[in-house]
Amino acid sequence: MPKDDCNTSGDRLYQMLATLKSHDFRITPQRLAVLKILAASEDHPSVEQIYEKVRVEFPTTSLATIYKIVALLKELNELLELGFPDESNRYDGKKPFPHPHVICTKCKKIMDPELTSFDELKEEIARKTGFRIIHHRLDFFGLCRECQKVE
Ligand code: ZN
Ligand code: MN
């Protein structure tokens, strides 16, 4: 089984709930809805995209509420934030640790490539520079399968 499959969205939801409870945060139905979306994080959603999804079930939810819970989860290391200078930040709650991404410049889709060579690359970088690597950010940009078809 690939390593990434260990983090099912159910496990991640459970972990996020446990972290919030251990910090005495109340789990409101709205918060739970946000957590469920982030635990799945299928498309690395932006705050605005989370907001649109949550509003289907909870029309009175404010964008500020979503921003707050996202900031909180980030603070608690339960969320990986991908910042972009000209676009909305995107979030991965399924894998809240650094990992490489592949990003479609046309439709803005973000995926997690399954890499076997990445640990080797990290070791080589550490060996050649003498750095102790703590964090990394590795993005590949291009056109996804769907966007290549309509080009
Ligand atoms: Zn695309
Ligand atoms: Mn990811």
From TrEMBL:
Residues holding Zn(2+): 104, 107, 144, 147
Keywords: DNA-binding, Iron, Metal-binding, Repressor, Transcription, Transcription regulation, Zinc
GO molecular function (one): DNA-binding transcription factor activity
Cofactor: Mn(2+); Fe(2+); Zn(2+)
InterPro entries to which the protein is assigned, alphabetical: FUR (IPR002481), Fur_C (IPR043135), WH-like_DNA-bd_sf (IPR036388), WH_DNA-bd_sf (IPR036390)
Domain of life: Bacteria
Pfam family of the protein (one): FUR
Biological processes per GO annotation: negative regulation of DNA-templated transcription; regulation of secondary metabolite biosynthetic process
Cofactor binding, per record: Binds 1 Mn(2+) or Fe(2+) ion per subunit. Binds 1 zinc ion per subunit.
Stretches that traverse the bilayer: none
Gene3D superfamilies to which the protein is assigned, alphabetical: 3.30.1490.190, Winged helix-like DNA-binding domain superfamily/Winged helix DNA-binding domain
Binding site for Fe cation: 136
Family membership noted in the UniProt record: Belongs to the Fur family.
Protein name as it appears in the record: Transcriptional repressor
Native organism: Desulfomonile tiedjei
